[in-house]
Write a structure and sequence with these properties.
The chain has 310 residues and is an alpha/beta fold. The chain has one domain (3-305): Spore Coat Polysaccharide Biosynthesis Protein SpsA, Chain A, CATH 3.90.550. It has helices spanning 15-21, 38-47, 56-62, 64-70, 78-87, 180-186, 232-243, 264-283, 294-305, and strands at residues 3-8, 27-31, 51-54, 92-96, 100-102, 115-123, 155-164, 167-170, 173-174, 199-201, 211-215, 248-251, 255-257. Strands 3-2-1-4-11-8-12 form a 7-stranded mixed β-sheet. Strands 5-13-9 form a 3-stranded mixed β-sheet. Helix 1 (15-21) links the parallel strand 1 (3-8) and strand 2. The longest helix has 20 residues, at 264-283.
Length: 310
Amino acid sequence: MKKVIVTTTINEPTEATLKYCQKEEWIFIIVGDTKTPHVSYRKLEDKYKNVIYIDPEEQEKDYKQLSDLIGWKSIQRRNIGFVKAYNLGADVIATVDDDNIPYDTWGEDLLIGKKVSVDLYESENGVFDPLSVTKSNHLWHRGYPIELLQTRHKVQNIGKKEIKVLIQADLWDGDPDIDAIARLTFRPEVKFSEITSPYASGAMSPFNSQNTFLAREVIPFYAVLPHIGRMDDIWGGYIVQKYFPDSLVYNKASVYQDRNAQDLITNLEKEIIGYRNNLKLINDIDNYKNYLPEATRLFYEVYRKQFSKE
């Protein structure tokens, strides 16, 4: 099985980045941007045989159309890493952030491609918040419809179900990338130690791109969508669930997020498109293109074509 990690960064190599470099059984693709310190990553590429750094010049040369549609100074350049990983023959792609420090056991409890017995939850309001069944259930996942916040705890464990896992969203200790309102309100420091086994729901549910494993077959349908703010990975996640229902599981925390400095109000502003449209998108997922800005629709069409030759 060929396994590939993909990330983007504009920072000097972080503790997380260096730990991922040391995961020798994984190829590690790092997608640069205009502000990325390229020399530092070329040094990592020289030091670690499993590291591949894609600098802006190479992106412009090999992925010109995608590059132009994404734009620079954009975390969504991670999509170029997904295409690169797919073309390398990846069976599993892990999408990670450079401030998510992997635990020593990260990647060992890999469920992708396996039929797994999971705890199945039924959500009364039709959308499942994966944090609602944890001890930190005062928080909610980024991208969960705010219209449903008051009823998000109305879930029931209906027993075990066997699921073929194509998407595995591991949780994250520390200061995680949750909803901006929740972060502003609670300034959390979380520890999901009570989650020790995988769980899922038959309902649509949000997952992000900070510590998630994806099967090869879902990659042509999953993207971190540009031009929609902090709904980039969330809407990409909802769309891929349309094509691959009942294939997403959540699993125990495998990273500690030592969050990069961010402006929380800016984050809030970038989530407003979701506050206005998440529930509409979920309820009308067959017509998801109607909710994407034109630039995002064009990107997604071109992105999908990158995989049409297989």
